[in-house]
């Protein structure tokens, strides 16, 4: 699959909720129900986009770094890099409905764990959308593993979220 096919599929699947602008700056989609660009004027999305453009890396300062570390701590949780998945939901009315809220929520929660970061879930006027996000989180943290996590003397309590995810997927605690 090449980039042209990927973009064609994305345009069809997003059904005009996203037109794959050359720069994803929130201008075209501002105020779309609420759409990917944010509610009302889309100002928050657009300001965040503009602020991210201000972040610059002076490569000469990294010249002697051979093993850069992006890890950071957010509210006591170690992240592999300083970014988190934004709280988006309502795939039917925000993204065209090609992917269900359940599938999307599972993908972002499990994907964030794989990447070593945190996924936030969104809420909307449809309580089912929020519930799908809660269910995705519970799949990892409220399965058979939850009894082990609740035992504060167990090493599982201190385990990496990726370990918990893969244990969940295997249906047992991994060695």
Show the helix and strand layout.
Blueprint: H1 3-14, H2 43-53, E1 72-74, E2 77-79, E3 85-88, H3 91-94, H4 101-115, E4 119-121, H5 127-141, H6 145-150, H7 161-170
Parallel strand pairs: 3-4
Antiparallel strand pairs: 1-2
Helix pairs in contact: 4-5
Give a written overview of the molecule:
It is a single chain. The chain has 175 residues and is mainly alpha-helical. Helices cover 42% and strands 7% of the residues. It has helices at residues 3-14, 43-53, 91-94, 101-115, 127-141, 145-150, 161-170; strands spanning 72-74, 77-79, 85-88, 119-121. The strands form 2 sheets. Strands 1-2 form a two-stranded antiparallel sheet. The chain has a two-stranded parallel ribbon with strand order 3-4. Strand 1 (72-74) and strand 2 (77-79) form a beta hairpin. The radius of gyration is 19 Å and the shape is globular. The chain starts with a helix and ends in a 5-residue tail after the last helix.
């Amino acid at each position: 699959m090449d980039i042209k096919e990927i973009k064609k599929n994305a345009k069809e699947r997003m059904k005009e909720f996203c037109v794959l602008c050359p720069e994803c700056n929130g201008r075209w989609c501002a105020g779309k129900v609420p759409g990917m660009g944010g509610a009302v004027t889309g100002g928050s999305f657009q300001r965040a986009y503009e602020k991210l453009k201000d972040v610059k890396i002076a490569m000469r300062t990294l010249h002697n770094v051979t093993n850069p570390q992006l890890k950071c701590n957010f509210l006591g949780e170690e992240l592999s890099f300083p970014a988190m998945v934004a709280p988006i939901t309502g795939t039917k009315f925000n993204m065209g409905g090609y992917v269900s809220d359940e599938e999307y929520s599972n993908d972002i929660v499990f994907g964030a764990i794989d990447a070593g970061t945190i996924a936030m879930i969104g809420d909307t006027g449809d309580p089912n959308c929020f519930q799908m996000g809660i269910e995705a989180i519970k799949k990892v943290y409220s399965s058979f593993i939850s009894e082990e996590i609740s035992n504060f003397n167990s090493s599982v309590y201190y385990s990496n979220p990726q370990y918990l995810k893969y244990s969940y997927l295997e249906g047992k605690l991994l060695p």
